[in-house]
Amino acid sequence: MDLNEIYTTLIMEHSSSKHNRRKLENPDLCEKGHNPSCGDEIELELKINGDIIEDLAFTGQGCAISQASTSMMIDLIKGKDKKEALELVETFIGMIKREINDEEELEVLEDAIVLKNISNMPARVKCAVLAWHTLKEAFNK
């Protein structure tokens, strides 16, 4: 399998996967994210215990990239504390903006590293970063 196949497979798996697509009961934080250029709309719901992100899920619809990116982000940050989560958000956004290229530094992103090449597709960048920006907004409130 070449990198493009891995990329496509992971995007398809995550965008069609339902394990992160649900409503949480009594979430502590809710934040809507919207990307007008593509019509992507998501709502993140988080359960926070102290500083730990105990659970998070999303609802909404959009292109495969926004949905896959959201699911990958959730897998990555569930169980982490806010500080770690925000560091991962910055790393992901840095990767997409091509500010971080060091493979070792990017390994912390796990599956989400496959979205690295989206930086070559300016029209898709907003789709990829939607959930990550939405999470940041939720924490800034």
From TrEMBL:
Gene3D superfamilies named in the record: 3.90.1010.10
Domain NIF system FeS cluster assembly NifU N-terminal: 7-127
Highest rank taxon of the organism: Bacteria
One Gene Ontology molecular-function label: iron ion binding
Biological process according to GO: iron-sulfur cluster assembly
PANTHER family named among the record's database cross-references: IRON-SULFUR CLUSTER ASSEMBLY ENZYME NIFU HOMOLOG
Similarity field: Belongs to the NifU family.
Designated name of the protein: SUF system NifU family Fe-S cluster assembly protein
Lineage of origin: Bacteria, Bacillati, Bacillota, Clostridia, Eubacteriales
